[in-house]
Amino acid sequence: MKYFKNILTALLLMLSGMLFSQIKPLDAELTNYQYPFEVHFLKFRSQNNDLKMAYMDVKPKNSNGKTIMLLHGKNFNGAYWEKTAKALSDKGFRVIITDQIGFGKSSKPQHYQFSFSQLAENTKAILDQLNIDKTIVLGHSMGGMVATRFTLLYPERVEKLVLENPIGLEDYKTFASYQTIDQAYQSELKNTAESYKNYQLKFYYDNKWKPEYQPWLDLIAGWTLHPDYPKVAWNAALTSDMIYNQPVCYEFKNIKVPTLLIIGTRDRTAIGKDRAPKELQPKMGQYQLLGKKTQQEIKGSKLVELESVGHLPHIEVYDQFWNVLYDFIR
User: In 34-137, where does DSSP find H-type helix?
Assistant: First the structure.
């Protein structure tokens, strides 16, 4: 039995090595990676930086007159909305997909004060450029925090709000100790394809890997193989600091637009969990509780819990996610 276990372990290690060897190095702005739809750029000046913010504008063949904007999470970019965007477009929605500054194909400034208000303002500038007055807003993970701040700042621009496993449902400062940006940067520099995959397996997919998950690992893992990675890691450190220091959970009560919460209840994502006292770590990221708490905070909001689903419903259980989303926005 031990012999066969050793053989199995060797095979798994070999397959893992083959998997990681296929990951291609990616530069800071993903110039050698093709997105699923045509990419446009908003060029603007902010905080003494000349920046460009990437976005995709997916126009339907037969418009229903509605627009929906999709906001990505911290370990992602707009590309992972491909399947969702195609389905929305088929139903007549115009779909705007952004890459926030510091992410995806957008600029990676080295001197930039990241704030959710600034990201919301940058996002609004894209809508202004496209002459879009009102939109449905869907935010996943960190995108949920951006979507929340956008809705609070510009409620007149938001028709409906959808939060898919957003982070920021709790104040991480009340659990975890502070990590300086320099410390966060050094931590980011240690990331590898293997460490990213282990993280995703734990928090996203319950230790069950499927081929359809690979593209979203390749995108961030490819950065670690390129000489540009320090630029990406620095921006990741700056945005981690933003998430830790700028909670939105205290302001959910101020949201007045129709809101849907899509919550995978297996999710345990929490910023700084490794820095929290061991007795507090199990209390962090309890989405089966946080979803209910947030639904009570946002007056009139709707909560749909997806049992035994992790941090990425629109990838892990797309059909369930789509049915819930479309029922709310149709």
Answer: 82-90, 116-129
Cα 138 to Cα 261: distance, rounded to the nearest angstrom: 10
Q: Where are the domains of the chain?
A: 25-329
User: How far apart, in Å, are the Cα atoms of 76 and each of 45, 139, 276?
Assistant: 24, 12, 25
pLDDT value of position 11: 40
Q: In this model, does residue 169 exceed pLDDT 80?
A: yes
Closest CA to 274 of 244, 234, 250: 244
CATH number, domain 25-329: 3.40.50.1820
The per-residue pLDDT for 178 is 98
* Average of per-residue pLDDT across 209-234: 96
Q: Scanning the structure block, which residue is given the tokens 């970019």?
A: 77
- C-alpha span between 134 and 129 (Å, rounded): 13
* Element at 93 (helix H, strand E): none
Q: Which pLDDT tens digit goes with each residue over 153-167?
A: 999 999 999 999 999
Task: Dump pLDDT digits (tens) for 95-136.
Answer: 999 999 999 999 999 999 999 999 999 999 999 999 999 999
* Rounded Cα gap, residues 263 and 290, in angstroms: 9
